[in-house]
Design brief:
By secondary structure, this protein is α+β, with helices and mostly antiparallel strands. It is built from six helices and eight strands. Helices cover 35% and strands 19% of the residues.
Length: 314
């Protein structure tokens, strides 16, 4: 036992071997490499976590938007079903127009052009919609498009941007009449606004008219229709063009008939297609306006139509 103790004591008093600078450098580099590896792993994990969060957030937003589109589409379909609104024959043909026209007399006399309209909304249905919400103005219908909606009017141009006829929130909102317009007569320059929804709902289908070079769709679908308590309005499209909010195409007040005539003629001159519609200073003109941000953040697609006929709503 004594020798062992002496031996231990002897070892404790031996001088310590100092590490060489080279060895210390290697240890230091090894430690740095270990720290760097740990840092890289942490960065990788954090990056992956962030990417996963972004992915889940994006998928969630897409799902939320898709659900909103489906839900709002179902709400619009239910509204039509509840009030029995249905356009069985969406496109009035020339044959149908001829069938309702009077026989051509044997002697040559000028006869005014006769217009027909799709029958899908009744006076009783319009009155029921007005009872549901007093802001209801009319029903707007354009054949062979998804545009078959109620048109509302509030005290401003904001309320119905994201509000339905039931006063519920919806990203697609409602079609709505400019608050400055006369909802009862739709006289002068009337403007109806609507969202350009990605699923083609609301005013999304107005893009069918804007090919840029081919006016075939316009020639085959030149009319739109409004159904209100005071009757059916038949409107013929005379202009389609792209503009921005920097250009004040939504003027509603004109000091003189000449100023009004110059304004609506200017609308016609802006059209990407030339039409043979003759405008007069006494005409009532309707503008359909929707967002069109392909070339400008403030871009708008505009469709102008003139009232060419009216009929009582039965």
């Amino acid at each position: 036992m004594k020798e062992r103790c002496i031996q231990v004591a002897s070892n404790q008093h031996q001088p310590q071997r100092k590490s060489s600078p080279q060895r210390q450098g290697k240890q230091s580099n090894k430690k740095k490499n270990q720290n760097q590896t740990i840092g890289n792993k942490v960065f990788y994990i954090a990056t992956q976590a962030l990417l996963c969060a972004i992915l889940f957030f994006t998928v969630g937003k897409i799902g939320e938007k898709a659900y909103a589109y489906i839900s709002e589409s179902q709400d619009n379909a239910k509204l039509k079903e509840d009030y029995g609104i249905s356009f069985a024959s969406p496109t009035p043909s020339s044959t149908a127009a001829g069938a309702t026209a009077r026989p051509v007399p044997s002697y040559p006399i000028p006869t005014p052009k006769r217009y027909t309209y799709p029958q899908g909304v009744t006076l009783e249905q319009v009155q029921a919609l007005k009872e549901k919400n007093e802001d209801f103005v009319c029903w707007l219908y354009i054949p062979d498009t998804t545009i078959s909606y109620n048109v509302m009017q509030a005290e401003d141009n904001d309320y119905y941007l994201h509000t339905t006829i039931d006063h519920k929130y919806a990203s697609s909102g409602s079609l709505f009449l400019d608050f400055r317009n006369n909802a009862e007569t739709l006289e002068g320059h009337t403007i109806i606004y609507g969202h350009n929804m990605q699923d083609g709902s609301m005013f999304g289908n107005l893009l069918k008219y804007y090919d840029g070079t081919d006016d075939t769709y316009l020639r085959e679908h030149p009319y739109l229709y409004t159904y209100a308590e005071n009757g059916v309005g038949i409107w013929q499209i005379f202009s389609v063009y792209e503009t921005t909010t920097d250009e004040y195409y939504i003027e509603t007040y004109f000091e003189t008939q000449e100023a009004y005539y110059n304004f609506i003629k200017d609308l016609q001159n802006k059209s990407v297609y030339k039409t043979d519609v003759l405008l007069k200073a006494t005409d009532d003109v309707m503008t359909l306006s929707t967002c069109y941000k392909f070339h400008s953040e403030n871009g708008r697609l505009v469709v102008n139509a003139v009232r060419v006929g009216t009929a009582p709503l039965l």
